[in-house]
Amino acid sequence: WGQGVNIPLSTFPLMFGEESCTLIVQIHGEGYDIFVNDKHCARLSHRTPLPEKDKVDRLILQFPSTDDYGKRENWNVYKVWWGHKPVMAKDDVSNVPGVNSHNSVHEKKLFVSGLTKVHSQPEVDLRRAELERAFRKYGGMQGAVVSCQMNSTFAFVEVETARAADLALRELGGKYRLNKARRSKHEALLEQRAAAEPGAKKESTDWE
Fold first, then answer.
1. How many CB atoms lie within 10 A of CB 178?
2. How many Cα neighbours within 13 Å face the side chain of 187?
């Protein structure tokens, strides 16, 4: 998703030592509500608008085989149920993790996931150089700005314009796992301050 949602451990019901638990993912107009043993643990927003009811092709529930560090996950799924039921979220969801997070899509920043894990600073430098070369033409005169960290399997790439980001998604989507990144609250605040400054210029979306 390009932006993590911090969920306190106290939000989840007791699961350690339990033989099984019930996970419910309820999809509605506000996002994805996550329930564990009927406890509302988180809400994730939609990356793209929901399709119309008569245009829904399929929904896929996918469990990862490994975590972000390549360690194998052991999932035992006893039963899966699909269907319609009333919205389970209560009227007041202000304390549910993810509800108050800033989650608007960043127009120029891309989230690159599914990369091999980097273990050292030289590997980080090589990854940054690889992505800078791959996204060079989308970054304008200065090139793309790449951010990646040690022990991670993802990176962020910022290009020149929103149009350049859309083109990179189309042209490099077959080579990398790409999505638009999410603005953090800090980024949104900086953009609001910059836009409010006298003489601030609106960014052009044209790109050659």
1. 21
2. 15
Q: Closest Cα partner for 148 from 191, 185, 119?
A: 119
Structure tokens at 61: 């529930």
Q: Per-residue pLDDT tens for 145-182?
A: 999 988 888 999 999 999 999 999 999 988 999 988 87
Tens-digit pLDDT profile for residues 68-112? 566 777 777 777 777 778 888 887 877 787 766 555 678 889 999
Question: pTM score > 0.70 for this model?
Answer: no
Measured between alpha carbons, how far is residue 162 from residues 40, 44, 108 in Å? 35, 24, 5
User: Sheet of 31-36: strands edge to edge?
Assistant: 23-28, 31-36, 39-44
Paired tokens of 20: 């099984």
Strand pairing category for 23-28 and 177-182: unpaired
Token couple for 199: 């003489």
Contact by Cβ (8 Å): 24, 88:
yes
Whose structure tokens read 């988180």?
42
CA distances in angstroms from 207 to 43, 45, 136, 163, 204, listed in the order given: 36, 29, 14, 6, 8
Q: Which structure tokens are listed for 202?
A: 């609106």
